[in-house]
Amino acid sequence: MTSPRIAPFPLSRPRRLRRAPWIRDLVREHELSVRDLIWPLFLIDGVDAEEPVPSMPGVSRLTVDRAVEAARRAADLGIVCMALFPRTDPARKTPGAEEAWNPDNLVNTATRAIKRAVPQMGVMLDVALDPYNSDGHDGIVRDGDVANDETLEALERQALAQAEAGADILGPSDMMDGRIGVIRRALEAHDFQHVAIMSYAAKYASAFYGPFRDAVGAKGALKGDKKTYQMDPGNTDEALREIAADLEEGADMIMVKPGMPYLDVCRRARETFGAPTFAYQVSGEYAMIQAAAANGWLDGDQAMMESLLAFKRAGCDGVLTYFAPRAAQLLEGSA
Ligand code: PBG
């Protein structure tokens, strides 16, 4: 028998539970699953073509037929939901954003095609006018301001066209006051009771959306900024008020956006409401990790997985991320 060692030695040794992979696996508190991921995808007109987005290395805009193929591959990887965004032909952008409720616009066409080919795939569509608006704003511009209530009427039309096309989840991302109530009532009145709303409830006026605006071609069009409707980055109590209002108006799920810089908001939202809570790891967050990885400054896969796990730790049920296919490969062990 070895003779007893004499103090001072630590009695509490957290390292005991870190000694080997199996015990780290055993005691891990939070885990990311492929079923936590929503994959945002960009669409373009045309057939059998794609177009890389320069500010989002690894991301391309796809024609509808290729988006269907992508949906098949995503389903094989275990991805359960995709969010579709259009790069609208500039010739179809107008100050009234009428293309937003064209039943045959890119997102509606792609939704029908994906639901036909891969019925088990959830399809989410953004309710906001910016991809269709020649002013680049999420709402209709009158006298230099985004007109709230006039925009609500447009959003209602857009939402109904999207529900008609077969969207499972509508994601109002426009930040107009009262939009969730208007959209919920319209869906109920038109027999779309089953269509869920994931409200972009706490959406901040953020510099991290830059690459997305490139991807949908809204950057050149945008006059000014979105600070009169998106939230001020200094506020968190206000985020809780926005979320409370949206839940009250009929949102089924809520979202915080951007993600990584606003994990505190995710945590407060989850603890205050306990409603299904999502974060959007936005284009700029994706671009930062990809740029650093491309320079060899960090391990891209590891940084990606760590960043996604952070959302689970912050209390989110899931995350919208452009990394979804790559993360799914790693999670499913088919990398
Ligand atoms: C449109 C919308 C935006 C994003 C999602 N929906 C851009 C914006 O508000 O300017 C950003 C997503 C991203 O950056 O990845 N309202």
Automatic annotation (TrEMBL):
<keyword id="KW-0627">Porphyrin biosynthesis</keyword>
<keyword id="KW-0479">Metal-binding</keyword>
<comment type="similarity">
    <text>Belongs to the ALAD family.</text>
</comment>
<keyword id="KW-0350">Heme biosynthesis</keyword>
<feature type="active site" description="Schiff-base intermediate with substrate">
    <location>
        <position position="257"/>
    </location>
</feature>
<feature type="binding site">
    <location>
        <position position="242"/>
    </location>
    <ligand>
        <name>Mg(2+)</name>
    </ligand>
</feature>
<keyword id="KW-0456">Lyase</keyword>
<dbReference type="GO" id="GO:0004655">
    <property type="term" value="F:porphobilinogen synthase activity"/>
</dbReference>
<comment type="subunit">
    <text>Homooctamer.</text>
</comment>
<comment type="pathway">
    <text>Porphyrin-containing compound metabolism; protoporphyrin-IX biosynthesis; coproporphyrinogen-III from 5-aminolevulinate: step 1/4.</text>
</comment>
<protein>
    <recommendedName>
        <fullName>Delta-aminolevulinic acid dehydratase</fullName>
        <ecNumber>4.2.1.24</ecNumber>
    </recommendedName>
</protein>
<dbReference type="GO" id="GO:0006782">
    <property type="term" value="P:protoporphyrinogen IX biosynthetic process"/>
</dbReference>
<dbReference type="GO" id="GO:0008270">
    <property type="term" value="F:zinc ion binding"/>
</dbReference>
<dbReference type="InterPro" id="IPR013785">
    <property type="entry name" value="Aldolase_TIM"/>
</dbReference>
<dbReference type="GO" id="GO:0005829">
    <property type="term" value="C:cytosol"/>
</dbReference>
<dbReference type="InterPro" id="IPR030656">
    <property type="entry name" value="ALAD_AS"/>
</dbReference>
<dbReference type="InterPro" id="IPR001731">
    <property type="entry name" value="ALAD"/>
</dbReference>
<keyword id="KW-0460">Magnesium</keyword>
<dbReference type="Pfam" id="PF00490">
    <property type="entry name" value="ALAD"/>
</dbReference>
<feature type="active site" description="Schiff-base intermediate with substrate">
    <location>
        <position position="203"/>
    </location>
</feature>
